[in-house]
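Worked problem 6 (solution included).
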Amino acid sequence: MPERLSGKTVLVVGADGNLGPLWVEAALAEGASVLGIGLRASTDPALARLATNYLGLRVADVDISEQVALEALASSLGLMARDMSIDGVILNAGIDSLPGSGRENLEDYNIAEWQRVFSVNVFGVVGVLNTVIPVLHNPSSVVMLGSLYGLVSPKPALYSHFNDGKGSLKHPAYGASKAALVAVAKQYGTHLAPQGVRVNTLTLGGVAAGQDPDFVAKFEAHVPQGTMLSRDDLTGAMTFLLSDESRAMTGQNVVVDGGFTAW
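Solution. The predicted structure is:
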């Protein structure tokens, strides 16, 4: 099968951490050159391994919670702004928390904690998108990473065994921030369409990542397909959205969750 991203340049925002290297590798494997930015992208071991296996990967440490000018972004990657032309953007950066690490009551999350989550998950993501719009190619594709908790509320029963049975609540700002991105993708996707830029959301269900066994068992009982997502379940949808195969889609939300939100 031909490489679906051959000749394209993809910017991965949030290239380090859990899923960032997965998106980077998926784009590289499909023939793209990748520009990866993140808080610790230059020292991420997974990105370092990819750099030894693939050509065309540049990484830089960038904090998107602070507004970054195009010239500074390009310079951090060893490029000149005038030479940048981006065909795809993966907006993966975000603040999340492990199951069981939350508070017991919604009101225990103060406004400063809400602001911290939104500073990255919404304001930072939108800020970096605004920065690179002038260098998005025609055509190009932007993919925002959503979450099932941007569509439905976390179920308290999934978290009830934490804290000696007192329970643990997912930070409400997380789902709110991901819901906001769905709305952002709709407006940006429709308004940028005349420029050949399409913007969609890829909403993921629960991804297996070494979570507490009790949580996993309860979560999987709520999934029609009976299992959490594996990392291999994710890249097909992402590649589709980045590739020309999705050229007729913009402002849409593609949900990959094993059927969790279909109940």
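Discussion: The chain is about 35% helix and 15% strand.
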